Known about the structure:
- 52% of the residues lie in helices and 7% in strands.
- It is built from 16 helices and five strands.
Amino acid sequence: MLIAKRWAYYFPALTLTLMIEEHVTLVVLLLLISQLIYSRRGDLKRLLDLGLRENQIFLVSVILCLASYGASAAMKAVYSIRPEFRDVYAASSAFGVLGFKGDVLLAPLRAISDPQAALGALTHDSAQKLLYMLMLFAPLLFVPFLSGFLAVNALLVVPFMLSNYRPYYMIGSHYPLYFLPSFFIMCAYAVSRLKERGTGVAKAALIASTVIIAALSPVSPLSGALNQRSHFLWYPEAEPPDQVEAIHLLLSQVPGDASILTQNHVFPHVSSRIEAYVLPVLSFDRDQTRMVEDYVDSLISHVEYVLLDTTTTDQWTTYARGRLEGSVDHAAVRVSGAVLYRRTKPGQS
């Protein structure tokens, strides 16, 4: 809508986009800057002329982006994070090689201030990162590199390349969604510049995209083999059908307004209710573990139901199950590899 200058649709689309997640603000800002520079083609006078409608739209859009980010930051400040989870939510370990703890958006500033640490971070998992970048551009036959739209939007990739957290640079995680829209816009601009040859290049890119997507789809036998034997893809392993059926059967026994505690992979099925809680997914150091145990105990004593997939044996599933097995306060219903615990006595408020 921005490129087509359809302003009646642009602002509702912008508003909905900014509502997705606070880091999307940076994506939108870089798209705005890229489009403004690209559309002016080096004409500095037009770039700074606030009498032009497009420049006015750009200024209002920037204000909306900053207001959205400020509102999300203020809202998060209202709901303080428990100390034992602060490092997890801040993704502190994701930039351990860089020696940085803080907002992912500020990681590049740390890299600028310490070039040696930045070099170490960039070269960490260098083969994996190079393969990742190749696979992002290969479906589009590297055509986006022909677009001047690339320069600013390439900044979106920088924080991920400075990280040591593999999901940031593996195919199959959601993180490429931050910059894939920019890649496709770059491709469209580059193809338009090729004129007569553009149609052939676009068709070739479409074929290449289709082939690669089909090969790396989660249902492809090739992706299954790669997922098992390499660190190339980040796809979760699917639950066996009978296990899925067992979990759905137990979920059907939980009233829609009941409070419930469950695991990360089951949580999306109950996340629409007000009181839905999830077990921690990570292990913590010795000092933190006791605090987390107290936290899990408080959840168990608070909720009416606890649903566990007993085929998983992570630390906190095992801990919760140990606390619930034989509990006189809970009745258990077992189906295949899953168990639903129902509180039989009033819990804590």
